[in-house]
From TrEMBL:
Record lineage: Bacteria, Pseudomonadati, Pseudomonadota, Gammaproteobacteria, Moraxellales
PANTHER family, per database record: LINCOMYCIN RESISTANCE PROTEIN LMRB, MAJOR FACILITATOR SUPERFAMILY MULTIDRUG TRANSPORTER MFSC
Cellular localization per UniProt: Membrane
Coiled-coil blocks: none
Protein name: Major facilitator superfamily (MFS) profile domain-containing protein
One GO MF term: transmembrane transporter activity
Boundaries of every Major facilitator superfamily (MFS) profile domain copy: 1-164
Membrane-protein topology: Multi-pass membrane protein
Key word Transmembrane present: yes
PROSITE patterns: MFS
GO cellular component, one term: membrane
Length: 171
C-alpha cells in the first residue's frame, strides 16, 4: 500500500518534471533507483524486517514512477493526435501482456531456485527450510529485475530528446 500511495503522489511531480526537462532526466535516475532497490531486495533474508521490505518496495515504486510515466508520455507524444486512442490502447495491452509474462517468468525462476535450494539441504522436509528456500527463490527472482533495470539504464542513456513535434508543452 505505501508503494502505491507514493506512486500516486509522485506521478504529478514526474509529469511536471517531464514537461520541463523531457524524459531522459527522469528515466536514468528512475532506472538507477530501481536498480538500487532491486539489488537490496535481492539480499532480503528471513531475518529482514517487514518494515525494511516495505521501505525497499516503496523506494522501488519511486523509480517505477520516474520510468513508466515518462516512457508512456514520450511514446504517445510521438504519435499524431488522431492516433492517441490507438496508442493508449496499445500501451495498455502491452503493459498487461508484459506484466503477465514477467510475473510468470519471475515465478518460474523463483520456483526453480527454491527447488534447487531444497535439493541442496540435508533435510528438505524441515519446516524452517521452507521459508529459507522461499527467500532464496525470491532473491534469485530479483536478479531478473536487476538485469532488466541494467538494460533500462543503458537504454535511457541513448534516449533521444523530444523532437519539436514531441516537445512537451508547458503551461
Amino acid at each position: 500500500m505505501p508503494g502505491c500511495a507514493i506512486n500516486g503522489i509522485l506521478s504529478p511531480v514526474a509529469g511536471r518534471a517531464y514537461d520541463m526537462y523531457g524524459p531522459k532526466v527522469l528515466l536514468t535516475p528512475g532506472f538507477l533507483i530501481m536498480l538500487f532497490m532491486l539489488w537490496n531486495l535481492s539480499h532480503v533474508t528471513t531475518d529482514t524486517s517487514m518494515y525494511t521490505v516495505v521501505l525497499l518496495h516503496s523506494g522501488l515504486m519511486v523509480g517505477v514512477t520516474f520510468v513508466m510515466m515518462p516512457l508512456q508520455t514520450h511514446g504517445l507524444n510521438a504519435l499524431p493526435a488522431n492516433l492517441y486512442p490507438d496508442g493508449t490502447a496499445l500501451i495498455n495491452t502491452l503493459l498487461q501482456i508484459s506484466g503477465s509474462i514477467g510475473t510468470a517468468l519471475a515465478i518460474t525462476i523463483m520456483s526453480a531456485s527454491q527447488n534447487s535450494f531444497l535439493k541442496s539441504v540435508s533435510n528438505p522436509s524441515d519446516p524452517a527450510m521452507e521459508s529459507i528456500s522461499l527467500t532464496a527463490g525470491g532473491q534469485t527472482a530479483f536478479i531478473l529485475g536487476i538485469v532488466l533495470a541494467i538494460l533500462g539504464v543503458i537504454m535511457s542513456l541513448f534516449m533521444n530528446k523530444p523532437t519539436p513535434k514531441e516537445q512537451p508543452q508547458t503551461q
